[in-house]
Amino acid sequence: MSPSSPSLSQELARFKTPTNDLLSLQWPLPPRNILLVKKKNTRASTEALREFAQHIHSTYPNINILLEPEVASEICASLPFHVFTFRDPSEPPFLPPAFANKVDMAATFGGDGTILRASSLFSTTRSVPPILSFSMGTLGFLGEWKFEEYKRAFREVYMSGAGAGDRSSILEQDPSSSAALQDEPAKKRMSAAAGPTGWSSIRGKSLGHSRGAHILLRDRLKVAIHALNDQKHAPQPLTSTFPSSNFSNIYAMNEVIIHRGAAPHLAHISIFIGGRFLTEAVADGMIISTPTGSTAYSLSSGGSIIHPLVSSLCLTPICPRSLSFRPLVLPASTPITLRLSEQHNRGREVEVSIDGVRREKGLRMGGEIQVVGEGIQRGKEGWKGGVPCIMRGGGTKEDDGWVGGLNGLLKFNYPFGEEG
Fold it and tell me: 6: left (phi > 0), else alpha (psi -120 to 50), else beta?
């Protein structure tokens, strides 16, 4: 990350309890740039984002609010302060590296899909900022907080590991704003107006290092796509607005799916595990998911439910022709290759989607997708990899979000005939 934004390695320290293995969020400096992501086309999430933004601006005036272009254009006029966004709304649906490196944390207002979309904004970068999620969607299995708790939730995150320090960061302002920063003098004026910042301006006691917000690092997949001639493609457009780029890998929080789509015939997919041929699947498609994605499409297809702290990949067939083809759970470091057979697929292509977004161009005969776990490592610079999700309730035994989600939301092993 750039010097104006603390790297993930500086923010996370090991935190252990008898029931889990989480990390503790410790800001080396007060967070300054917060990205807000909301569920699309819903009034409730729009109003929640607007209320949250106004609270942040009034209570933490030195924090910059970052919005997606379409969201900024939707609510900018109703906010009495400036927000920051992309210069061009036609840019790709992931953040440019220079912009992504400025983001200290993200907050989402919606369901699990909104969290996935926030993560996908960083799908071409190695580091993802901590994500504070407010459950306002249909299921909310990944959402940790109710929106009514947003003041307490944000304060706990903001004050986590509070210490001395200060920094400032100037970002590109929303071009729809009348005071958009277009020149260096304007940037200097804004920087001077912001003045000093720090935790000392926030009333109340510091939480301290021992009571910092707890983080669950969720694994991601690293995905590469190869053509028939064995030349690696840069990730092709998930939408038609993707420009050509030099990215050789894209990261996914949930899953990678190949599917026969509207074609009436089953797809023939050769599967390689660690470079060795396993089998040729004849099925509607295949899913490679993370532990987080194991409770999504993979679960609906009969895949195993995997705890997010288990570093693994789940390989799940979609409606296989063979009754003996069962889902596999593999180490996250095991490369998986899915190759579209040249002999049996009748000259067609199959659809490819990453975290629920379909690529405009499918996978043609002889093409292949290579997937491996991103890997979460701790080196000299600290923790790298994964999606740091801010947990609710400190991960105690009495408030285990994952177990509670299985029981309360997925109705795990729920008896027939009993009311919820």
Answer: beta
366-382 core/surface letters (b: 16 or more CB in 10 A; e: else): bbbbbbbbbebeeeeee
With a cut of 80, say whether residue 353 has pLDDT above it.
Answer: yes
pLDDT in tens, 252-285: 999 999 998 888 889 999 999 999 999 999 999 9
CB 105 within 8 A of CB 130: yes
Q: Over 70: is that where the pLDDT of 415 sits?
A: yes
DSSP 343-406: SSSTT--BEEEETTEE-SS-BPTT-EEEEEE---EEETTEEESSEEEEPSGGG-GGG-HHHHHH
Higher pLDDT pick, 112 / 15: 112
With CA atoms as reference, report the closest residue to 270 among 336, 331, 330.
Answer: 336
Helix, strand, coil % over all residues of the chain, rounded to 5: 25, 30, 50
Q: Give CA angle at 382 (122, 171), nearest 5°.
A: 40
Here the tokens at position 123 are 């799908």
By the 8 A CB rule, do 254 and 292 touch?
A: yes
Encoded tokens for 8:
């993930």
Q: Is the dihedral of CA 294, 297, 299, 304 positive or negative?
A: negative
Here the tokens at position 362 are 């499918």
Residues 306, 312 contacting (CB under 8 angstroms)? yes
State how far the Cα of 99 lies from the Cα of 268, in Å rounded to an integer. 41
Longest dimension (CA), the chain: 69
What is the C-alpha to C-alpha distance for residues 102 and 104, in angstroms, rounded to an integer? 6
Number of residues that make up the chain: 420
Write down the residue that tokens 């083809």 correspond to. Answer: 325
- In sign, the C-alpha dihedral spanning 107, 112, 114, 119 is positive
The 3-state DSSP class for residue 35 equals strand
